[in-house]
């Protein structure tokens, strides 16, 4: 087993939110305020269009501040995937958790509670995460548990406010789930580029969450 694979599976869960807060506050990285963009591919046969997400350089937001609403949930992102896509998901999780922001990912293979009911774990993963990446592959479309978790995510945030992040891989656009056709998606052609788009989308949502929280307190 590759070393990075072993390290990822044995990575301990955060012992407390406070420890994460203090570590981020002590080592805040300027890279989180850099301007970048993420574009979502689309098909003329659907209602989707190209989406560009820009991380605004005008108003710098520290998503890792001790009072950030980011800490209101246990995870920044939950990855919904089929069993056949575990290797790709492990790479994505390793990439996100290795970013300066140390995104907290829910990985079912690693973070699900042994002995707990599958339905309970899937629902808790959705409710305890800010964003949900739907890795839509042929395996995803055939997996009833993936469908179930997708519906749970849509029920949690039906207004498609940036929390649900569909990612298409090896799936024809015509097979894109109808339930998601009002949401922009990422088409995974180049893995590295798609990983950056996912990172930027999660970052964008957390920044907007922090901005909204600040405005409501003024």
From TrEMBL:
Domain TIR: 73-202
Segments of this protein annotated with the region Disordered: 1-43
Biased composition (Low complexity): 15-43
Coiled coil ranges: none
GO terms for cellular component: cytoplasm; plasma membrane
PROSITE patterns assigned to the protein according to its UniProt record, in alphabetical order: TIR
Highest taxon above the source species: Eukaryota
GO MF, one example: Toll-like receptor 2 binding
Full protein name: TIR domain containing adaptor protein
Gene: TIRAP
């Amino acid at each position: 087993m590759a070393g990075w694979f072993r390290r990822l599976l044995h990575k301990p869960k955060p012992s407390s939110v406070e420890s994460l807060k203090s570590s981020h506050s002590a080592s805040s990285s300027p890279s989180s305020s850099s301007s970048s963009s993420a574009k979502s591919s689309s098909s003329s046969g659907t209602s989707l269009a190209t989406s560009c997400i820009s991380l605004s350089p005008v108003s710098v937001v520290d998503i890792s501040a001790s009072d950030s609403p980011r800490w209101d949930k246990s995870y920044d992102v939950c990855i919904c995937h089929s069993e056949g896509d575990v290797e790709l998901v492990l790479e994505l999780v390793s990439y996100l958790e290795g970013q300066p922001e140390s995104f907290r990912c829910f990985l079912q293979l690693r973070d699900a509670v042994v002995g707990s009911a599958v339905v309970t774990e899937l629902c808790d993963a959705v409710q305890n995460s800010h964003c949900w990446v739907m890795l839509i592959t042929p395996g995803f479309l055939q997996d009833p548990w993936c469908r179930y978790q997708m519906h749970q995510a849509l029920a949690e945030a039906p207004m498609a406010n940036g929390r649900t992040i569909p990612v298409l891989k090896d799936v024809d656009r015509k097979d894109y789930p109808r339930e998601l056709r009002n949401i922009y998606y990422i088409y995974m052609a180049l893995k590295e580029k798609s990983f950056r788009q996912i990172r930027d989308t999660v970052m964008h949502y957390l920044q907007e969450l922090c901005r909204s929280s600040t405005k409501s307190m003024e």
